[in-house]
Design brief:
Chain lengths: 127, 165
């Protein structure tokens, strides 16, 4: 019965004309849910940086952290009805793209020298 | 209705994020990361931040992930699996991560109380974002293009091989 209700409401949602109506018909979840979800994603990224030695996977974990922050910024911006948060998300995306480009270039350059992407080998600056 | 969508997307994103860390081959981590990004894009749509959702898919799934994929495939890095730290370091990392989660949730939990709930917020659609971006935030927007140019020149400089110089 309950499942049939969910299915029916989904059908009603898909019957609507355009995307705007579908999204507008959804109510917002409490902000605490977004805080919990984004904190979990952020912590998964932190753990990834701590336990991995593969430099590319460390980069992916950093992307995960940036994305969780982006989502939380967007959520707060919507709840406070203030567009500054979403503008900041766009700039974070810009900086993340630049960071990935430069970081992967560094990775390729170090791979040419050491023939590995193990970050434990990159300790030549240690005094 | 929105509850099911929210929990479904959240579960998908968290599952994909954990699989990024668990999978042994980097290319599998990458594919799970793309899945996680699509779930986050669904979250943006739920918040009625339509412009952000589209930009997120274009920039992350379209540009950054392709960059990762090219690096993985060009360097042929998929062969050396399982580059993780020792068991004791993993346990310490997960414990400290859990403590960080506890702290984050405890600190951030009080921030949501004064935010008023409104069902439809129109600030996320492209017209309103564009109006704010090109009036109030014009200078940072231009500075971002300079940053891109610098990053591009730097990346080309760094990967250029020594023989060509």
């Amino acid at each position: 019965m309950r499942r049939a209700q969910i299915f029916l409401s989904f059908l009603i949602l898909t019957k609507k004309k355009n995307m705007n109506e579908v999204v507008n018909s959804l109510k917002l979840m409490p902000i605490n849910y977004y805080i919990a979800f984004c904190s979990i994603l952020f912590v998964i990224g932190v753990i990834g940086v701590l336990i991995k030695r593969n430099a590319i996977v460390i980069f992916m974990s950093i992307e995960l952290m940036l994305n969780s922050i982006n989502l939380l910024l967007a959520a707060f911006s919507v709840y406070h009805n203030n567009p500054a948060g979403q503008i900041l998300v766009i700039f974070i995306m810009v900086v993340a793209a630049a960071e990935v480009a430069a970081g992967l270039a560094i990775l390729v350059a170090t791979f040419r020298n050491t023939h590995s992407i193990d970050v434990n080998l990159l300790n030549q600056l240690k005094g | 209705m929105e509850k099911y969508i929210f929990f479904g997307l959240s579960g998908l994103a968290i599952f994909a994020a954990i699989m990024v860390l668990v999978s042994r081959k980097p290319i599998h981590s990458l594919l799970y990361l793309i899945l996680c990004f699509f779930a986050i894009a669904g979250h943006y749509l739920m918040l009625n931040a339509q412009f952000l959702a589209v930009v997120h898919i274009i920039v992350y799934a379209g540009a950054i992930m392709v960059l990762f994929l090219f690096t993985l495939m060009l360097l042929n890095l998929n062969i050396n699996a399982e580059l993780t730290k020792s068991r004791i370091a993993q346990i310490v990392a997960v414990t400290s991560g859990g403590l960080l989660l506890l702290t984050l949730v405890a600190v951030l939990r009080g921030f949501g109380t004064e935010a008023q709930l409104q069902s439809t917020s129109q600030i996320g659609i492209a017209r309103n974002i564009g109006q704010v971006l090109f009036s109030q935030y014009m200078f940072p927007f231009e500075a971002a293009s300079l940053l891109f140019l610098t990053a591009m020149v730097g990346a080309v400089m760094m990967v250029k091989s020594e023989k060509e110089k």
